[in-house]
Design goal:
heterodimer, A: about 425 residues, alpha/beta, six-stranded mixed beta sheet, globular, B: about 120 residues, alpha+beta, 4 helices
Chain lengths: ~425, ~120
Protein backbone atom coordinates (compact mmCIF):
# COMPACT_ATOMS: atom_id res chain seq x y z
CA UNK A 1 0.00 0.00 0.00
CA UNK A 2 1.43 3.32 -1.08
CA UNK A 3 0.28 6.78 -0.05
CA UNK A 4 1.47 10.19 -1.18
CA UNK A 5 0.81 12.88 1.40
CA UNK A 6 0.78 16.31 -0.19
CA UNK A 7 1.32 19.16 2.24
CA UNK A 8 -0.33 22.49 1.48
CA UNK A 9 1.33 24.81 3.98
CA UNK A 10 -1.01 27.13 5.88
CA UNK A 11 0.65 30.16 7.44
CA UNK A 12 -2.42 32.15 8.43
CA UNK A 13 -6.16 31.79 8.93
CA UNK A 14 -8.70 34.56 8.28
CA UNK A 15 -12.44 34.96 7.98
CA UNK A 16 -13.57 35.71 4.45
CA UNK A 17 -16.62 35.83 2.23
CA UNK A 18 -15.53 32.60 0.55
CA UNK A 19 -13.85 29.58 2.12
CA UNK A 20 -10.62 28.98 0.18
CA UNK A 21 -6.88 28.48 0.40
CA UNK A 22 -4.84 31.18 -1.26
CA UNK A 23 -1.12 31.93 -0.97
CA UNK A 24 -0.79 29.96 2.25
CA UNK A 25 -3.79 31.57 3.93
CA UNK A 26 -6.88 29.60 4.88
CA UNK A 27 -9.97 31.78 4.45
CA UNK A 28 -13.04 30.61 6.33
CA UNK A 29 -16.63 31.66 5.67
CA UNK A 30 -17.99 31.74 9.20
CA UNK A 31 -21.69 31.46 8.30
CA UNK A 32 -21.03 28.49 6.04
CA UNK A 33 -19.34 26.57 8.86
CA UNK A 34 -22.01 27.54 11.38
CA UNK A 35 -24.74 26.32 9.02
CA UNK A 36 -22.85 23.09 8.41
CA UNK A 37 -22.62 22.38 12.15
CA UNK A 38 -26.22 23.44 12.80
CA UNK A 39 -27.43 20.72 10.43
CA UNK A 40 -27.19 18.76 13.67
CA UNK A 41 -30.16 19.96 15.67
CA UNK A 42 -28.57 19.14 19.03
CA UNK A 43 -26.84 22.53 19.15
CA UNK A 44 -28.53 25.64 20.52
CA UNK A 45 -25.80 27.98 19.33
CA UNK A 46 -22.60 27.66 17.34
CA UNK A 47 -19.78 30.13 16.93
CA UNK A 48 -16.45 29.97 15.15
CA UNK A 49 -13.32 31.64 16.51
CA UNK A 50 -9.80 31.82 15.13
CA UNK A 51 -6.63 31.43 17.19
CA UNK A 52 -3.18 31.95 15.71
CA UNK A 53 0.30 31.16 17.06
CA UNK A 54 1.63 33.88 19.35
CA UNK A 55 -1.76 35.45 20.09
CA UNK A 56 -2.76 36.02 23.70
CA UNK A 57 -5.53 33.44 23.53
CA UNK A 58 -6.49 30.54 25.81
CA UNK A 59 -8.76 27.82 24.41
CA UNK A 60 -10.56 25.61 26.95
CA UNK A 61 -12.07 23.02 27.43
CA UNK A 62 -10.65 21.39 24.30
CA UNK A 63 -12.29 18.11 23.30
CA UNK A 64 -10.55 17.23 20.04
CA UNK A 65 -8.07 18.65 17.52
CA UNK A 66 -8.38 17.58 13.90
CA UNK A 67 -6.20 18.22 10.85
CA UNK A 68 -8.10 18.94 7.60
CA UNK A 69 -7.25 16.39 4.90
CA UNK A 70 -8.78 15.29 1.61
CA UNK A 71 -8.45 12.24 -0.62
CA UNK A 72 -7.19 13.35 -4.02
CA UNK A 73 -6.70 9.92 -5.60
CA UNK A 74 -7.38 6.37 -4.51
CA UNK A 75 -10.22 4.54 -2.82
CA UNK A 76 -12.33 5.89 0.00
CA UNK A 77 -12.48 9.22 1.77
CA UNK A 78 -11.17 10.82 4.94
CA UNK A 79 -12.47 9.45 8.29
CA UNK A 80 -13.93 6.19 6.94
CA UNK A 81 -16.90 4.93 8.93
CA UNK A 82 -17.43 8.42 10.35
CA UNK A 83 -17.65 10.85 7.43
CA UNK A 84 -16.88 8.59 4.46
CA UNK A 85 -17.91 5.06 3.54
CA UNK A 86 -15.91 2.16 4.90
CA UNK A 87 -13.63 1.61 1.89
CA UNK A 88 -10.09 0.69 2.85
CA UNK A 89 -8.10 3.94 2.90
CA UNK A 90 -4.36 4.58 2.92
CA UNK A 91 -3.43 4.41 -0.75
CA UNK A 92 -3.27 6.93 -3.58
CA UNK A 93 -2.91 10.61 -2.79
CA UNK A 94 -4.11 12.69 0.15
CA UNK A 95 -3.70 16.42 0.56
CA UNK A 96 -3.14 17.93 4.00
CA UNK A 97 -3.72 21.50 5.18
CA UNK A 98 -0.45 21.52 7.13
CA UNK A 99 -0.18 24.20 9.80
CA UNK A 100 -3.82 24.48 10.76
CA UNK A 101 -6.40 22.53 12.76
CA UNK A 102 -10.03 22.37 13.74
CA UNK A 103 -10.38 22.54 17.53
CA UNK A 104 -13.63 21.56 19.24
CA UNK A 105 -14.62 22.90 22.65
CA UNK A 106 -17.61 22.21 24.80
CA UNK A 107 -18.96 21.48 28.21
CA UNK A 108 -19.91 17.83 27.76
CA UNK A 109 -19.48 17.15 31.46
CA UNK A 110 -19.06 19.61 34.30
CA UNK A 111 -15.54 18.63 35.18
CA UNK A 112 -13.30 19.67 32.34
CA UNK A 113 -9.96 19.35 30.81
CA UNK A 114 -7.94 20.58 27.92
CA UNK A 115 -6.16 23.93 27.73
CA UNK A 116 -4.37 25.28 24.65
CA UNK A 117 -2.52 28.55 25.28
CA UNK A 118 -1.40 30.18 22.03
CA UNK A 119 1.46 32.04 23.75
CA UNK A 120 3.42 32.05 27.02
CA UNK A 121 4.83 29.14 29.03
CA UNK A 122 1.77 26.91 28.51
CA UNK A 123 2.16 27.13 24.74
CA UNK A 124 5.47 25.30 25.00
CA UNK A 125 3.72 22.21 26.33
CA UNK A 126 1.17 21.76 23.55
CA UNK A 127 1.95 21.26 19.86
CA UNK A 128 -1.38 22.90 18.96
CA UNK A 129 -0.16 26.37 19.97
CA UNK A 130 1.91 26.31 16.76
CA UNK A 131 -1.13 25.89 14.51
CA UNK A 132 -3.63 28.27 12.96
CA UNK A 133 -6.74 27.04 14.73
CA UNK A 134 -10.37 27.18 13.66
CA UNK A 135 -12.17 26.78 16.97
CA UNK A 136 -15.75 25.50 17.16
CA UNK A 137 -17.69 26.80 20.15
CA UNK A 138 -20.85 24.69 20.21
CA UNK A 139 -23.48 25.03 22.93
CA UNK A 140 -25.95 22.16 23.34
CA UNK A 141 -29.71 22.46 23.62
CA UNK A 142 -31.08 22.34 27.15
CA UNK A 143 -31.36 18.80 28.45
CA UNK A 144 -29.05 17.17 25.86
CA UNK A 145 -27.58 14.04 27.46
CA UNK A 146 -23.83 13.65 27.81
CA UNK A 147 -23.51 10.77 25.31
CA UNK A 148 -25.48 12.58 22.59
CA UNK A 149 -23.53 15.78 23.23
CA UNK A 150 -20.23 13.92 22.90
CA UNK A 151 -21.26 12.36 19.59
CA UNK A 152 -22.64 15.61 18.16
CA UNK A 153 -19.46 17.50 19.01
CA UNK A 154 -17.24 14.70 17.67
CA UNK A 155 -19.10 14.65 14.37
CA UNK A 156 -19.09 18.47 14.12
CA UNK A 157 -15.30 18.43 14.30
CA UNK A 158 -14.95 15.76 11.60
CA UNK A 159 -17.47 17.47 9.33
CA UNK A 160 -15.72 20.83 9.50
CA UNK A 161 -12.26 19.25 9.07
CA UNK A 162 -13.44 17.28 6.02
CA UNK A 163 -15.13 20.42 4.64
CA UNK A 164 -11.97 22.52 5.02
CA UNK A 165 -9.83 19.65 3.69
CA UNK A 166 -11.77 19.73 0.42
CA UNK A 167 -10.50 23.27 -0.18
CA UNK A 168 -7.09 21.72 -0.88
CA UNK A 169 -8.27 19.04 -3.29
CA UNK A 170 -7.25 20.86 -6.47
CA UNK A 171 -4.20 22.59 -5.01
CA UNK A 172 -0.70 21.48 -5.98
CA UNK A 173 1.00 20.65 -2.69
CA UNK A 174 4.09 22.56 -1.52
CA UNK A 175 5.76 19.31 -0.52
CA UNK A 176 5.07 15.60 -0.97
CA UNK A 177 6.04 12.65 1.25
CA UNK A 178 5.62 9.07 0.07
CA UNK A 179 5.00 6.13 2.40
CA UNK A 180 4.86 2.53 1.29
CA UNK A 181 4.30 -0.77 3.04
CA UNK A 182 4.38 -3.97 1.02
CA UNK A 183 2.27 -7.04 1.75
CA UNK A 184 4.11 -9.00 4.45
CA UNK A 185 5.81 -11.68 2.30
CA UNK A 186 6.93 -9.22 -0.36
CA UNK A 187 8.31 -6.91 2.32
CA UNK A 188 10.22 -9.70 4.03
CA UNK A 189 11.72 -10.82 0.71
CA UNK A 190 12.70 -7.28 -0.24
CA UNK A 191 14.28 -6.44 3.12
CA UNK A 192 15.45 -9.93 4.05
CA UNK A 193 18.49 -8.67 5.97
CA UNK A 194 16.62 -6.11 8.08
CA UNK A 195 14.95 -6.74 11.45
CA UNK A 196 11.15 -6.95 11.23
CA UNK A 197 9.51 -4.35 13.44
CA UNK A 198 5.85 -3.58 14.07
CA UNK A 199 4.05 -0.95 16.06
CA UNK A 200 1.49 -2.04 18.64
CA UNK A 201 -0.86 0.88 19.13
CA UNK A 202 -3.09 0.65 22.21
CA UNK A 203 -6.37 2.52 21.79
CA UNK A 204 -8.27 3.87 24.78
CA UNK A 205 -11.67 2.16 24.89
CA UNK A 206 -13.52 2.47 28.19
CA UNK A 207 -16.64 4.58 27.80
CA UNK A 208 -17.85 8.16 27.59
CA UNK A 209 -14.92 10.48 26.76
CA UNK A 210 -12.56 7.48 26.93
CA UNK A 211 -13.26 6.04 23.48
CA UNK A 212 -11.57 5.60 20.11
CA UNK A 213 -13.05 4.50 16.79
CA UNK A 214 -11.54 2.40 14.00
CA UNK A 215 -13.34 2.72 10.65
CA UNK A 216 -16.32 3.82 12.72
CA UNK A 217 -16.20 0.82 15.07
CA UNK A 218 -16.01 1.45 18.81
CA UNK A 219 -12.58 0.03 19.73
CA UNK A 220 -14.09 -1.70 22.78
CA UNK A 221 -15.62 -4.14 20.35
CA UNK A 222 -12.54 -5.07 18.33
CA UNK A 223 -10.06 -7.84 18.83
CA UNK A 224 -6.49 -6.87 17.94
CA UNK A 225 -5.97 -6.62 14.22
CA UNK A 226 -3.49 -5.38 11.65
CA UNK A 227 -3.51 -2.11 9.69
CA UNK A 228 -1.25 -0.76 7.01
CA UNK A 229 0.33 2.32 8.66
CA UNK A 230 -0.94 4.60 5.89
CA UNK A 231 -4.56 3.78 6.75
CA UNK A 232 -4.06 5.80 9.94
CA UNK A 233 -2.93 8.83 7.88
CA UNK A 234 -6.34 8.88 6.16
CA UNK A 235 -8.27 8.90 9.44
CA UNK A 236 -8.92 5.19 10.00
CA UNK A 237 -8.49 5.88 13.74
CA UNK A 238 -10.25 8.85 15.36
CA UNK A 239 -10.72 10.11 18.88
CA UNK A 240 -14.01 9.96 20.80
CA UNK A 241 -13.14 13.18 22.64
CA UNK A 242 -11.33 13.28 25.94
CA UNK A 243 -10.97 13.46 29.60
CA UNK A 244 -7.32 13.52 30.67
CA UNK A 245 -6.32 15.91 27.91
CA UNK A 246 -2.59 15.41 28.41
CA UNK A 247 -2.51 11.76 27.37
CA UNK A 248 -5.64 11.08 25.31
CA UNK A 249 -4.70 11.08 21.65
CA UNK A 250 -6.61 13.64 19.64
CA UNK A 251 -7.54 12.82 16.06
CA UNK A 252 -4.66 15.12 15.02
CA UNK A 253 -2.27 12.85 16.93
CA UNK A 254 -3.58 9.77 15.14
CA UNK A 255 -3.27 11.38 11.70
CA UNK A 256 0.29 12.50 12.48
CA UNK A 257 1.31 9.54 14.66
CA UNK A 258 5.03 10.14 15.29
CA UNK A 259 5.78 6.45 15.93
CA UNK A 260 4.51 5.66 12.43
CA UNK A 261 6.45 8.61 10.98
CA UNK A 262 9.71 7.65 12.72
CA UNK A 263 9.44 3.96 11.82
CA UNK A 264 8.91 4.94 8.16
CA UNK A 265 12.08 7.09 8.32
CA UNK A 266 14.07 3.97 9.20
CA UNK A 267 12.04 1.66 6.97
CA UNK A 268 14.16 -0.11 4.35
CA UNK A 269 17.35 1.26 5.92
CA UNK A 270 17.69 0.10 9.53
CA UNK A 271 14.53 -1.98 9.82
CA UNK A 272 11.56 -3.40 7.98
CA UNK A 273 8.42 -1.67 9.32
CA UNK A 274 5.90 -4.39 8.60
CA UNK A 275 2.74 -2.76 9.95
CA UNK A 276 0.58 -1.70 12.87
CA UNK A 277 -1.15 -4.01 15.32
CA UNK A 278 -4.01 -2.13 16.97
CA UNK A 279 -5.42 -3.26 20.29
CA UNK A 280 -7.79 -1.88 22.91
CA UNK A 281 -7.82 -1.05 26.63
CA UNK A 282 -11.06 -2.36 28.09
CA UNK A 283 -12.01 -2.24 31.75
CA UNK A 284 -12.95 -5.92 31.95
CA UNK A 285 -9.84 -7.86 32.98
CA UNK A 286 -10.64 -10.87 30.78
CA UNK A 287 -10.73 -8.47 27.79
CA UNK A 288 -7.27 -7.23 28.77
CA UNK A 289 -6.02 -10.82 28.93
CA UNK A 290 -7.58 -11.71 25.57
CA UNK A 291 -6.37 -8.60 23.76
CA UNK A 292 -2.81 -8.89 25.06
CA UNK A 293 -2.79 -12.61 24.18
CA UNK A 294 -3.80 -11.63 20.65
CA UNK A 295 -1.21 -8.87 20.23
CA UNK A 296 1.49 -11.35 21.28
CA UNK A 297 0.04 -13.99 18.97
CA UNK A 298 -0.04 -11.58 16.01
CA UNK A 299 3.51 -10.42 16.77
CA UNK A 300 4.68 -14.03 16.72
CA UNK A 301 2.64 -14.82 13.59
CA UNK A 302 4.28 -11.92 11.74
CA UNK A 303 7.71 -13.26 12.70
CA UNK A 304 8.69 -9.98 14.32
CA UNK A 305 12.07 -9.19 15.84
CA UNK A 306 10.97 -6.03 17.61
CA UNK A 307 7.90 -4.09 18.64
CA UNK A 308 7.20 -0.52 19.75
CA UNK A 309 4.15 -0.34 22.06
CA UNK A 310 2.37 2.94 22.82
CA UNK A 311 -0.15 3.41 25.62
CA UNK A 312 -3.09 5.80 25.87
CA UNK A 313 -4.61 7.17 29.05
CA UNK A 314 -4.17 6.80 32.80
CA UNK A 315 -4.59 3.98 35.33
CA UNK A 316 -5.94 0.67 34.03
CA UNK A 317 -4.11 0.99 30.65
CA UNK A 318 -0.88 0.59 32.64
CA UNK A 319 -2.01 -3.02 33.13
CA UNK A 320 -2.66 -3.49 29.38
CA UNK A 321 0.74 -1.97 28.64
CA UNK A 322 2.58 -4.33 30.95
CA UNK A 323 0.56 -7.35 29.74
CA UNK A 324 1.38 -6.49 26.11
CA UNK A 325 5.05 -5.92 26.88
CA UNK A 326 5.44 -9.07 28.98
CA UNK A 327 3.64 -11.42 26.62
CA UNK A 328 5.41 -10.13 23.51
CA UNK A 329 8.81 -10.35 25.26
CA UNK A 330 7.99 -13.90 26.31
CA UNK A 331 7.67 -14.76 22.62
CA UNK A 332 11.33 -13.75 22.26
CA UNK A 333 10.49 -10.39 20.64
CA UNK A 334 12.16 -7.24 21.93
CA UNK A 335 9.86 -4.41 23.03
CA UNK A 336 10.11 -0.69 23.69
CA UNK A 337 7.14 0.85 25.50
CA UNK A 338 5.97 4.49 25.41
CA UNK A 339 3.98 5.85 28.32
CA UNK A 340 3.70 8.91 30.54
CA UNK A 341 4.03 9.28 34.28
CA UNK A 342 1.93 10.28 37.26
CA UNK A 343 4.83 10.45 39.65
CA UNK A 344 3.34 12.99 42.07
CA UNK A 345 4.06 16.70 42.14
CA UNK A 346 7.59 16.11 43.35
CA UNK A 347 8.16 13.37 40.77
CA UNK A 348 9.28 10.97 43.50
CA UNK A 349 6.42 8.45 43.48
CA UNK A 350 6.03 5.31 41.40
CA UNK A 351 5.08 6.46 37.89
CA UNK A 352 2.79 3.65 36.72
CA UNK A 353 0.15 1.51 38.39
CA UNK A 354 1.83 -1.65 37.10
CA UNK A 355 5.36 -2.86 36.35
CA UNK A 356 7.40 -5.86 35.24
CA UNK A 357 11.10 -6.56 34.88
CA UNK A 358 10.62 -7.34 31.19
CA UNK A 359 9.60 -3.71 30.66
CA UNK A 360 13.24 -2.73 30.46
CA UNK A 361 13.09 -0.26 27.57
CA UNK A 362 10.75 2.61 28.37
CA UNK A 363 10.18 6.01 26.78
CA UNK A 364 8.31 8.56 28.91
CA UNK A 365 6.24 11.49 27.73
CA UNK A 366 6.79 13.31 31.04
CA UNK A 367 5.24 13.65 34.50
CA UNK A 368 1.62 14.81 34.24
CA UNK A 369 1.55 15.84 37.91
CA UNK A 370 4.17 18.56 37.40
CA UNK A 371 2.74 21.96 38.35
CA UNK A 372 2.80 24.99 36.07
CA UNK A 373 1.53 28.57 36.35
CA UNK A 374 -0.20 29.84 33.24
CA UNK A 375 -0.32 33.65 33.08
CA UNK A 376 -3.56 35.41 32.12
CA UNK A 377 -4.43 35.74 28.42
CA UNK A 378 -6.22 38.66 26.76
CA UNK A 379 -8.89 36.45 25.25
CA UNK A 380 -10.55 33.22 26.35
CA UNK A 381 -12.29 30.98 23.84
CA UNK A 382 -14.61 28.55 25.61
CA UNK A 383 -15.33 28.45 29.33
CA UNK A 384 -12.72 29.65 31.78
CA UNK A 385 -15.00 29.14 34.78
CA UNK A 386 -14.42 25.43 34.50
CA UNK A 387 -10.71 25.69 35.15
CA UNK A 388 -11.13 25.06 38.86
CA UNK A 389 -12.80 21.83 37.85
CA UNK A 390 -10.20 20.75 35.36
CA UNK A 391 -8.04 17.64 35.73
CA UNK A 392 -4.93 18.77 37.51
CA UNK A 393 -6.73 21.87 38.67
CA UNK A 394 -7.96 22.35 42.22
CA UNK A 395 -9.95 24.71 44.40
CA UNK A 396 -8.27 28.07 43.84
CA UNK A 397 -6.54 27.11 40.59
CA UNK A 398 -7.99 30.14 38.88
CA UNK A 399 -6.47 33.31 40.36
CA UNK A 400 -8.12 36.73 40.43
CA UNK A 401 -5.82 38.09 37.72
CA UNK A 402 -6.81 35.23 35.39
CA UNK A 403 -3.67 33.18 35.84
CA UNK A 404 -4.03 29.47 36.51
CA UNK A 405 -1.97 27.11 38.62
CA UNK A 406 -2.45 23.58 37.30
CA UNK A 407 -0.77 20.28 36.79
CA UNK A 408 0.45 19.57 33.26
CA UNK A 409 -2.37 17.06 32.84
CA UNK A 410 -4.69 20.02 32.15
CA UNK A 411 -2.83 20.93 28.95
CA UNK A 412 -3.91 19.23 25.73
CA UNK A 413 -1.19 16.88 24.52
CA UNK A 414 1.33 17.83 27.24
CA UNK A 415 2.45 14.28 28.11
CA UNK A 416 1.35 12.56 24.92
CA UNK A 417 2.11 8.85 24.92
CA UNK A 418 2.89 8.71 21.21
CA UNK A 419 5.78 11.08 21.87
CA UNK A 420 4.17 14.00 20.01
CA UNK A 421 5.53 16.43 22.59
CA UNK A 422 8.77 17.77 24.00
CA UNK A 423 8.81 16.23 27.47
CA UNK A 424 10.81 13.10 28.21
CA UNK A 425 13.59 11.80 30.45
CA UNK A 426 16.93 10.38 29.45
CA UNK A 427 19.32 8.09 31.30
CA UNK A 428 23.06 8.56 30.93
CA UNK B 1 -17.56 -19.50 37.98
CA UNK B 2 -18.63 -18.14 41.39
CA UNK B 3 -21.14 -15.45 42.11
CA UNK B 4 -20.38 -12.05 40.58
CA UNK B 5 -20.92 -8.91 42.64
CA UNK B 6 -20.95 -5.26 41.62
CA UNK B 7 -19.38 -3.17 44.40
CA UNK B 8 -20.14 0.53 44.05
CA UNK B 9 -20.54 3.89 45.75
CA UNK B 10 -22.28 5.31 42.67
CA UNK B 11 -26.02 5.88 43.26
CA UNK B 12 -26.69 5.80 39.51
CA UNK B 13 -25.19 2.31 39.14
CA UNK B 14 -27.20 1.22 42.19
CA UNK B 15 -30.45 2.62 40.79
CA UNK B 16 -29.99 1.04 37.39
CA UNK B 17 -28.68 -2.40 38.33
CA UNK B 18 -29.60 -3.31 41.92
CA UNK B 19 -32.54 -5.40 40.75
CA UNK B 20 -30.62 -7.03 37.91
CA UNK B 21 -27.31 -8.19 39.40
CA UNK B 22 -25.96 -8.90 42.88
CA UNK B 23 -24.90 -5.43 43.96
CA UNK B 24 -23.39 -4.02 47.13
CA UNK B 25 -23.76 -0.27 47.57
CA UNK B 26 -21.66 1.62 50.12
CA UNK B 27 -21.99 5.31 50.90
CA UNK B 28 -18.21 5.79 51.24
CA UNK B 29 -15.36 7.50 49.40
CA UNK B 30 -13.28 6.31 46.44
CA UNK B 31 -10.31 5.13 48.52
CA UNK B 32 -12.58 3.49 51.09
CA UNK B 33 -14.36 1.62 48.32
CA UNK B 34 -11.05 0.29 46.99
CA UNK B 35 -10.17 -0.84 50.53
CA UNK B 36 -13.52 -2.60 50.79
CA UNK B 37 -12.67 -4.41 47.55
CA UNK B 38 -9.23 -5.29 48.91
CA UNK B 39 -10.86 -6.86 51.98
CA UNK B 40 -12.96 -8.99 49.67
CA UNK B 41 -9.92 -10.04 47.63
CA UNK B 42 -8.39 -11.29 50.89
CA UNK B 43 -11.58 -13.27 51.45
CA UNK B 44 -11.01 -15.06 48.14
CA UNK B 45 -12.84 -12.82 45.67
CA UNK B 46 -11.26 -12.16 42.29
CA UNK B 47 -11.32 -8.85 40.38
CA UNK B 48 -13.29 -8.90 37.15
CA UNK B 49 -12.69 -5.23 36.32
CA UNK B 50 -9.72 -2.95 36.84
CA UNK B 51 -10.22 -0.65 39.87
CA UNK B 52 -8.57 2.32 38.09
CA UNK B 53 -11.14 1.99 35.34
CA UNK B 54 -11.09 5.60 34.11
CA UNK B 55 -8.74 8.42 33.22
CA UNK B 56 -10.75 10.58 35.62
CA UNK B 57 -8.29 10.80 38.46
CA UNK B 58 -8.88 9.34 41.95
CA UNK B 59 -8.76 12.84 43.44
CA UNK B 60 -11.29 14.17 40.91
CA UNK B 61 -14.22 11.76 40.96
CA UNK B 62 -15.73 10.48 44.20
CA UNK B 63 -17.31 7.47 42.41
CA UNK B 64 -16.02 4.02 41.72
CA UNK B 65 -17.56 0.74 40.68
CA UNK B 66 -15.69 -2.56 40.64
CA UNK B 67 -16.96 -6.03 39.72
CA UNK B 68 -15.66 -9.02 41.66
CA UNK B 69 -16.30 -12.74 41.51
CA UNK B 70 -16.42 -15.34 44.27
CA UNK B 71 -13.30 -17.51 44.17
CA UNK B 72 -11.79 -20.42 46.05
CA UNK B 73 -8.62 -18.86 47.43
CA UNK B 74 -6.46 -15.75 47.36
CA UNK B 75 -5.96 -14.60 43.77
CA UNK B 76 -2.52 -13.02 43.73
CA UNK B 77 -3.05 -11.14 40.43
CA UNK B 78 -6.16 -9.48 41.89
CA UNK B 79 -4.31 -8.61 45.09
CA UNK B 80 -1.45 -7.01 43.16
CA UNK B 81 -3.82 -4.94 41.03
CA UNK B 82 -5.94 -3.70 43.95
CA UNK B 83 -2.85 -2.88 46.06
CA UNK B 84 -1.28 -0.92 43.17
CA UNK B 85 -4.59 0.88 42.61
CA UNK B 86 -4.76 1.87 46.29
CA UNK B 87 -1.17 3.12 46.18
CA UNK B 88 -1.93 5.21 43.09
CA UNK B 89 -5.08 6.62 44.68
CA UNK B 90 -3.20 7.60 47.85
CA UNK B 91 -0.53 9.31 45.74
CA UNK B 92 -3.18 11.51 44.11
CA UNK B 93 -5.01 12.25 47.36
CA UNK B 94 -1.74 13.26 49.04
CA UNK B 95 -1.22 16.08 46.52
CA UNK B 96 -4.78 17.37 46.16
CA UNK B 97 -7.88 16.25 47.99
CA UNK B 98 -11.27 15.66 46.37
CA UNK B 99 -13.17 18.81 45.51
CA UNK B 100 -16.50 19.74 47.04
CA UNK B 101 -18.46 19.37 43.82
CA UNK B 102 -21.86 20.84 43.04
CA UNK B 103 -24.69 18.37 42.35
CA UNK B 104 -24.69 18.79 38.55
CA UNK B 105 -21.02 17.85 38.36
CA UNK B 106 -21.49 14.93 40.76
CA UNK B 107 -24.14 13.65 38.38
CA UNK B 108 -21.68 13.91 35.46
CA UNK B 109 -19.14 11.86 37.43
CA UNK B 110 -21.83 9.27 38.08
CA UNK B 111 -22.69 9.14 34.38
CA UNK B 112 -19.04 8.61 33.39
CA UNK B 113 -18.52 5.87 35.99
CA UNK B 114 -21.73 4.16 34.82
CA UNK B 115 -20.70 4.47 31.16
CA UNK B 116 -17.38 2.82 31.93
CA UNK B 117 -18.70 -0.07 34.02
CA UNK B 118 -21.82 -0.74 31.95
CA UNK B 119 -20.18 -2.84 29.18
CA UNK B 120 -18.62 -4.98 31.94
CA UNK B 121 -21.92 -5.35 33.84
CA UNK B 122 -23.54 -6.48 30.59
CA UNK B 123 -21.03 -9.33 30.43
CA UNK B 124 -22.23 -10.73 33.76
CA UNK B 125 -25.98 -10.23 33.29
Amino acid sequence: MRLELGYVFIKDVQFGSESKVENGTLYVNKEELINLIKEDEHFESVDIELARPGESVRITPVKDVIEPRVKVEGPGGIFPGMISKVDIVGSGKTNVLKGCAVVTTGRIVGFQEGIIDMTGPGAEYTPFSKLNNVVLVCEPKEGLKQHEHEKALRMAGFKVAAHLGKLAKEIKPDEVDTFETLPILEGINKYSDLPKVAYVQMLQSQGLLHDTYVYGVDAKQIVPTILYPTEIMDGAIVSGNCVSACDKNTTYHHLNNPVVQDLYKKHGKELNFVGVIITNENVYLADKERSSNWTAKLAEFLGLDGVVVSQEGFGNPDTDLIMNCKKIEQKGIKTVIITDEYAGRDGASQSLADADKLANAVVTGGNANEVITLPPMDKIIGHIKYVDTIAGGFDGSLKEDGSIVVELQAITGATNELGFNKLTARGF
Amino acid sequence: MGKNIVVTNNPLVKAKYQDKVPLEYYDIGYLELLMKVRDKVHLGYKLLTHPLSSSVKPNETPYKTVIISEGSGLDSDSLLIIENSILTTKKFLNDISVYNWEDKILEDFQVVDLSIIEPAINKIL
